Amino acid sequence: SKELTPLLAGVAGGITGAIEISITYPTEYVKTVMQLNPEKNKMGATNLVREIMAKNGYFGMYRGYSALLLFSIPKNYVRFGAFQYAQKSVFTKKQRLDNFCCGLLAGAAESTLVVTPQETLKTKLVHDKLQEQPKYRNLFHGIQEIVKENGVSGLYRGYSATLIKQSSNQGVRFLVYTDTAKYLQDYISTKMICDLIAGGFAGFCSVMANNPVDVIKTRLQGVDGAKYSGFMDCGKKILLENGPLGFYSGVGPRLARVILDVALTFSIFGALKRQ
User: Could you tell me if residue 20 is left (phi over 0), alpha (psi between -120 and 50 degrees) or otherwise beta?
Assistant: First the structure.
């Protein structure tokens, strides 16, 4: 595969992101609902999907999708561009730890520039629709209201949790993906299949490593996120109210989403790189 410039890596990543989120969003929606609402979490993913389908049809699971679609191209642009930049200019030895560090840097960049506002909007839009009287008419009305109420900083609610989540996500994913793809090359000749499997496994590892942070992030970014004074306070309350398993609420749909997401992302990105 050819070396991509950060710009081309960003473009390829952006296209990848738009395709991926359009396919996987329903699992993201179900995960978010489960993390926001312990009662829904107790129902389990399958029963929750049935309930949503009965009430709102299949597209009921696309609430909040616009926020992720809007940001998916810039998010992947920043992620892959930053990773490529870090590989070329910062961690240049291409050792295993370098992949992890490049991933950390890519995750930090995307969480700061794109993901925190994206996740805040998505979570608030999803949570708002679960209220008796939703107040956001659509994505842009949501942005307007959040900024009006809390200023631009309102879009950065849960930033520390998002930063930890995204940095660890990308650190783990790029490291595991690179190692796994290298290992699989000896057994699988089709590069795209190799990328799919390695990406899926990388996604699995990242979810298991940081689901607790994801739950905290979701709670902080919900419409009632202000009831938590911060990251630690939120974690403490989840532990007290829901026990240790509370940190793994929504893990089923998140695994489904992320395994598919990362598998698709690396395979589509790899295919675009090979063009």
Answer: alpha
Encode pLDDT of 39-74 as tens digits.
888 888 899 999 999 998 988 898 888 888 888 778
Long-range contacts: 125-131, Cβ < 8 Å, 24+? 125/63, 125/64, 125/66, 125/67, 126/29, 126/32, 126/33, 126/36, 126/63, 126/64, 127/32, 127/36, 127/222, 127/223, 127/224, 128/223, 129/63, 129/64, 130/33, 130/36, 130/37, 131/223
Fold of 6-274: Mitochondrial carrier fold (1.50.40)
- Residue 124 CA, chain-centre distance (Å), reads 15
pLDDT in tens, 133-166: 888 888 888 888 888 988 888 889 889 889 999 9
What pTM did the predictor assign?
Answer: 0.78
pLDDT digits (tens, 9 = 90+) for 9-38: 767 777 777 887 888 889 889 988 888 888
Distance between CA atoms of residues 9 and 17, nearest Å: 12
